[in-house]
Amino acid sequence: MKTITLLVGIMILLVFVSMFMYLIFSQVTMRKLRKNPDTKDILGVEFVSGWDSFNVAQALALPQFITNKLKHSPISSLYANTDILNVHTSKIDKAFACIFYWFFMGSNLFGICVLLLNAFGVFD
Q1: pLDDT at residue 40 above 90?
Q2: What is d(CA 51, CA 101) in angstroms, rounded to the nearest whole number?
Q3: C-alpha–C-alpha distance, residues 40 and 31, integer Å
Q4: What does R_g of the chain's alpha carbons equal in angstroms?
Q5: How do residues 27-37 score in pLDDT, each as one tens digit?
Q6: What does the alpha-carbon distance between residue 29 and residue 39 come to, in Å, rounded to a whole number?
Q7: Total domain count for the chain?
Q8: What is the C-alpha to C-alpha distance for residues 100 and 89, in angstroms, rounded to an integer?
Q9: How many whole angstroms separate alpha carbon 3 and alpha carbon 99?
Q10: 18 lies in some domain
């Protein structure tokens, strides 16, 4: 088996696991936040259906100094409000959001690295 085939298989597996985690996060945490009148309007801009799940996961997973910079930027309305989300989510929701967000970002970064390494001919 070629190395590129193995790496693409791992990449596909990681993407499927992150999609499964996205489904669970959307059905459990996001449903609760969308039904709450206090949190319904602070979930960030939804470019496509379901994008607010990524906004919320990002708000709960990023370190506090980054979310503070995003909060004071001119485009702060695109992001979810971290302060209100921290009040209305449990520790389990926060932990799962962190795991989901970093697993999603890691799987995508892994896929991009495999793509670039293959484009530069490393696996030939």
Answers
A1: no
A2: 12
A3: 10
A4: 17
A5: 999 999 999 99
A6: 12
A7: 1
A8: 15
A9: 28
A10: yes
